[in-house]
Design goal:
Elements: E1 6-9, E2 16-17, H1 19-31, H2 39-42, H3 50-58, H4 62-78, E3 85-86, H5 90-99, E4 103-111, H6 112-121, E5 133-136, H7 145-156, E6 163-167, H8 170-178, E7 182-186, H9 193-198, E8 203-205, H10 208-216
Parallel strand pairs: 1-4, 1-6, 4-5, 6-7, 7-8
Antiparallel strand pairs: 2-3
Length: 217
């Protein structure tokens, strides 16, 4: 993989651990509906689109989903955004990839607005051109991972052969494969090993150090 010129990263669970902030914001949003959210269940919300998760786990109507997402974003901006920690070794990896001439991009189902704010808060925004950070729209559009990756590829140009996707959930693997990309699954994030192995990623790594070795040699 060290020959790839363009590295597309997922954000949550791949570059940083956002669990405390996301789960806390979900708990506060669910209390509005009289639901005491189970933190273990709410961990599974990290990765897929929020709309999909609220519908799947709580059978919310469209109106309820819209209100839940509004409340979640309100709490997340006020409290949850700053309860996020970059994984040890990630800043150094991003720096060294940049020094090696790689172009780095982001494809995340996190709302675009929050993706940029998160990168700034984590002090890693400097490794990504602003026009290469792709998140969902606040109005609910562009939440599918394959669509997000396709948008990155359109911006980058060229062919899939000089690019690779890095992510921690099945959505990253599926989205990459739909777009003809090789994909590296990381097991230190929020996807289970079983979830990742079932979709047969191009490679799988258990640590940031192993990811470094794969991308830089």
């Amino acid at each position: 993989m060290k020959d790839r010129k363009f590295i597309i990263f997922d954000l949550d669970g791949t570059l940083s651990d956002p669990g405390e902030g996301i789960i806390g914001s979900l708990i506060l949003a669910l209390r509005h509906f009289g639901i005491e959210g189970d933190p273990n269940l709410l961990r599974t919300f990290i990765g897929p689109p929020l709309k999909e998760s609220f519908e799947k786990h709580f059978s919310f109507s469209e109106t309820q989903v819209d209100e839940a997402i509004r409340l979640y974003r309100q709490y997340f901006e006020e409290h949850g955004l700053h309860k996020n920690h970059v994984y040890p070794g990630i800043p150094e990896l991003l720096s060294d990839l940049t020094k090696a001439g790689k172009t780095l991009a982001i494809a995340t189902t996190k709302a675009d607005f929050f993706a940029h704010k998160t990168l700034e808060y984590l002090n890693i925004a400097k490794y990504f051109q602003k026009d290469l950070v792709f998140g969902a729209y606040l109005d609910g559009r562009r939440t599918d991972k394959a669509e997000l990756i396709a948008a990155v590829l359109e911006r980058l140009g060229g062919t899939p052969q000089d690019k690779v996707m890095v992510g921690d959930r099945k959505y990253d693997i599926v989205g990459a494969k739909v777009n003809g990309l090789d994909v590296i699954a990381v097991t230190y994030g929020y996807g289970t090993r079983e979830e990742l192995e079932a979709l047969e990623p191009t490679a799988m790594v258990n640590s940031v150090q192993a990811l470094r070795e794969l991308l830089l040699g």
